[in-house]
Design goal:
Blueprint (H helix, E strand, L loop, with lengths): L1 H14 L5 H8 L1 H22 L2 H12 L2 H6 L6 H24 L1 H5 L9 H17 L4 H13 L6 H24 L2 H10 L11 H18 L2 H16 L4 H11 L2 H13 L10 H14 L8 H31 L7 H4 L4 H15 L2 E4 L2 H11 L4 E2 L9 H5 L13 E7 L3 H10 L3 E5 L9 E2 L4 E9 L1
Parallel strand pairs: 1-2, 1-3
Antiparallel strand pairs: 3-6, 4-6, 5-6
């Protein structure tokens, strides 16, 4: 999904004349803001469908759109924005599909039959779940949450959810077929980034687990703001002691669309590692809950005046954090003497490397071959330059090695090739390696007095060679 989005986004930038270097970074990320805006809109629609309170719907959307989570995700072209968009659409259509069951939950307990909801809502829900799975496999947790809600409402065997499941399966089926024919490489990739190998008794460390869990939990206070999370935590005991009402049934639904995702990622953080954004979909439901809490009348903790203050404090804090991220990260990137921030340092040098490679390749009309997927992505993203992936062991563990594998290309024996590697290895060792890979006439592409181009946060540098096949 993210590849399709970036491809369409780049095409739109080219049509608009914004594909040159001064504009391409901002233009390529515009779609992220669109996806996050849609996510906020459908969160508001979900709140309205459940409670029919304009203030609660407005509060949910405002809390999300101004949150540090949305501010951070708008800075990077990642899968999370699209996951959140499809999750929010699926949540709204699911609520619309089961809303007759929510209204008549007590009647159901007495044996009455609830309406099924319009079939179109279930089709939209299934399509959104399928597209969400194509964006990120975390969308599978939506299915878990939905099934729990359906069981609680005694709707698990009604036709609507099964229609949605069938549509989701059809949308996701091409991905399943491709994975099955290729040995499930995306599963291997997810196991790699989750570091499940650290679960072995020899590698798992209790101290590391506590540190990882603490870092993850601390980050959650920032993502949607401490006021929302702390308000919900203080409200939870009162909520659990409350009586069964129509609103409570609806609130239960929202809790079930938040807690499973949070529980899974908290467990992951304790067992191996979890990035702060991995639980992001849970905050759609939590924002709706916070909006409901802050705009409801009742106990002192729920007085609308207190809720309004908490909402505007959250908005102010969220905007301040977002501004700090936008301008602080920009300053940290541009000023080498500034505080080192890992997320910034990982991005350093790739644009300069891509420009250098483009100039070298144009001078010799050379084919570009690179091993590092970050470099391949930079060449494609900044310049639209087609480069081929060097993958000597034929692991095919990322997009470029699957679809632009160098060994799959037919290249003439006299065609100049610019081979670009990233690392800190000795030059002669790299030449020996390229010779073993079948390259001939290998010479250094960088002049002796040409400064090295550092990239990333690990002290790596660009090492380039001219070669032929």
């Amino acid at each position: 999904m993210i590849a399709w989005v970036l491809g369409l986004n780049r095409a739109a930038c080219e049509v608009a004349g914004l594909s040159t270097l001064p504009w391409i970074e901002g233009c390529a990320r515009l779609a992220q803001a669109f996806a996050l805006g849609i996510a906020g809109l459908f969160a508001a629609l979900s709140s309205w469908t459940l409670f029919h309170r304009k203030q609660a719907a407005f509060a949910a959307a405002l809390l999300l759109i101004t949150s540090p989570l949305f501010g951070f995700l708008s800075l990077f072209a990642t899968t999370d924005a699209w996951l959140l968009m499809f999750w929010s659409i699926a949540l709204w259509s699911f609520i619309c599909g089961i809303s007759p069951g929510l209204q008549s939950s007590f009647a159901l307990a007495a044996g009455a039959r609830a309406d099924q909801g319009h079939w179109a809502y279930w089709v939209v829900c299934g399509a959104a779940v399928g597209l969400g799975l194509l964006s990120k496999y975390s969308m599978g947790v939506f299915v878990v949450s939905a099934f729990i809600v359906l069981l609680a409402l005694k709707r698990a065997f009604s036709w609507g959810p099964w229609l949605a499941a069938a549509v989701a399966f059809v949308v996701f089926l091409p991905n399943l077929i491709w994975n099955a024919t290729q040995g499930f490489p995306t599963l291997s990739h997810h196991l790699e980034i989750s570091q499940v190998q650290s679960l072995s008794p020899t590698q798992w460390s209790g101290l590391s687990a506590v540190r990882s869990l603490g870092e993850f939990l601390a980050a959650q206070l920032v993502l949607i703001g401490p006021f929302a999370l702390l308000s919900l935590l203080f409200w939870l005991p009162t909520y659990l002691r409350g009586h069964q009402t129509e609103d409570r049934v609806k609130l239960n639904l929202l809790w079930w669309f938040a807690l499973p995702m949070l529980a899974i990622v908290v467990l992951q953080a304790g067992l191996s590692r979890a990035f702060a954004n991995w639980a992001a979909p849970a905050y759609l439901a939590l924002a709706i809950l916070a909006g409901y809490l802050w705009t409801s009348s009742g106990t002192d903790a729920q007085r609308p005046s207190v809720g309004r203050r908490l909402l505007w404090l959250s908005v102010a804090l969220g905007l301040a954090c977002s501004a700090l991220m936008i301008y602080g990260l920009r300053y940290a990137y541009q000023e080498s003497s500034a505080l080192n921030i890992r997320a910034v340092e990982k991005l350093r040098g790739w644009k300069e490397a891509a420009l250098w490679i483009q100039n070298k390749a144009k001078a010799q009309d050379a084919v570009v071959v690179a091993e590092d997927r970050r470099l391949l992505a930079s060449l494609s993203g900044y310049l639209g330059l087609k480069a081929y992936a060097l993958d000597e062991q034929n692991r095919r563990n990322h997009h470029y090695s699957w679809f632009y594998h160098f060994s799959d290309q037919r290249i003439g024996t006299d065609q100049p090739i610019l081979v670009v590697l990233v690392g800190q290895a000795d030059t002669q060792n790299l030449i020996n390696r390229l010779q073993a890979a079948g390259f001939r006439e290998i010479t250094a592409a960088q002049a002796a007095d040409e400064p090295a181009i550092p990239v990333g946060d690990s002290g790596d540098k660009i090492q380039a060679f001219w070669a032929t096949r």
